[in-house]
Amino acid sequence: MEEVLVQRKIIHVDMDAFYASVEQMDFPELKGKPVAVGGGENRGVVAAASYEARKFGVRSAMSGYLAKKNCPDLIFVRPRFDRYKEISRKIRTIFLEYTDLVEPLSLDEAYLDVTYNKKGNPSASMIAREIRERIFQETGLTASAGISVNKFIAKVASDYNKPNGQKTVGPDDVLAFLEQLAIGKFYGVGKVTTEKMYQLGIFTGLDLKTKSLEFLVEQFGKSGTFYYYVVRGIHNSEVKPNRIAKSVGTEHTFDTNISSEVFMEEKLEIIANELASRLQKHKVSGKTITLKIKYSDFTQQTRSKTLPYFISDKSLIMESVRELLYQEKLKDSVRLLGISLGNLNTEVKKTVVAVQLKFDF
After folding, report:
1. Residues above pLDDT 90, as percent of the chain
2. Can you say how many angstroms the Cα of residue 226 is from the centroid of all Cα atoms in its chain?
């Protein structure tokens, strides 16, 4: 069937410093202070940082050691995921009052397709504002939103007026918005890719737009095709209410670095057991086993193997994990190990057919 370009009304809602904001709300003594949710300065990694901490360059995925170095007054708080999930469920309930087309990306962000919504409101911008007000009234937390014709632009726009703001990029403004956008602000363009773009003379969306499809594919592979189309406002991915996981994984960070493969095997047995339990609970299996290794210097390595059949059993998982562990010599002591199973039997492909829509934002 023929795939047709769709002009939808998409909202991307993103909670503001969600984990850290929950902690500051629940514990008033933390308000106005630099807070990092994570494992601590010695062994942990920052899961989220308050805006007060971000002023010092503290970011998620940063080591606790470096975060504390950047911000000596940083307060570390252990994550409380049950509490975050509880609030996330409340927020999801609000979303579903407006549309059933809600695609959660994580506990603190989601896409909403409000082209046809339960309130009969023709203005996606008004709906976004109303949802943000409802979230604040019912949870005490602030959210930001981006509103546009597709998921990519809505995601970029939601970061534009953070915190506690929103930005609408209407159909007639899409190309101008993307052309002036700094290349590092493009969703999907990470730090390494940004540096490569700079080396190629690509600093803005307009610069990116001057490059041919062939050139971008040559430089960036499949991602080059993605960059070529999104900078022209073309991104046809629909909001999927039931997102299918592409992999299931479990990992552990250790209190003391491990340097012996024998000890690692013991830890991996525990991790594999947890993974197998999760797989069985969700009734899924997969073909691709990945072993994740994070060394004491925070460098990371992954080793993968794809089997000709689906597995979910712990013993079969460990059989491949052992092979991957001894595949090559470890370069240093290890602080984290993880196992994930991808290429799941839940992955299905669909063809989307829709019609061209015109509307006011």
Report:
1. 71
2. 18
Return d(Cα 311, Cα 345) in angstroms, integer.
Answer: 10
Query: Which residues line the annotated binding site?
Result: 14, 108
DSSP state of 182: B
For 242-278, the DSSP string reads SPPPSEEEEEEEEEEEE--HHHHHHHHHHHHHHHHHH
- Closest among 207, 199, 147 to 181, alpha carbons compared: 207
Q: Which residues are annotated as a binding site for Mg(2+)?
A: 14, 108
Per residue in 221-278, pLDDT (tens digit) is 989 999 999 999 998 889 989 766 678 888 888 878 898 888 999 999 999 999 999 8
**Which pair of structure tokens corresponds to residue 334?**
């290890």
Query: What does the H/E/C string look like for 306-321?
Result: EEEEEECCHHHHHHHH
> Any catalytic annotation for residue 109?
yes
pTM for the complete prediction? 0.72
Question: What is the C-alpha separation between 206 and 181, in angstroms, rounded?
Answer: 8
Whether the upstream peptide bond of residue 163 has omega within 30° of 0, thus cis, is yes
Choose the CATH number for 187-230 among 2.60.60.30, 3.40.630.30, 1.10.357.10, 1.10.150.20. Answer: 1.10.150.20
Of the candidates 3, 109, 265, 319, the residue annotated as catalytic is 109
**In the sheet that 334-344 helps form, which strands lie side by side, from edge to edge?**
247-258, 334-344, 286-295, 300-311
Q: Which top CATH class is 18-80?
A: alpha beta
Report which residue type is found at 325: L
What CATH fold (topology level) applies to the domain 247-344?
Dna Ligase; domain 1 (3.30.1490)
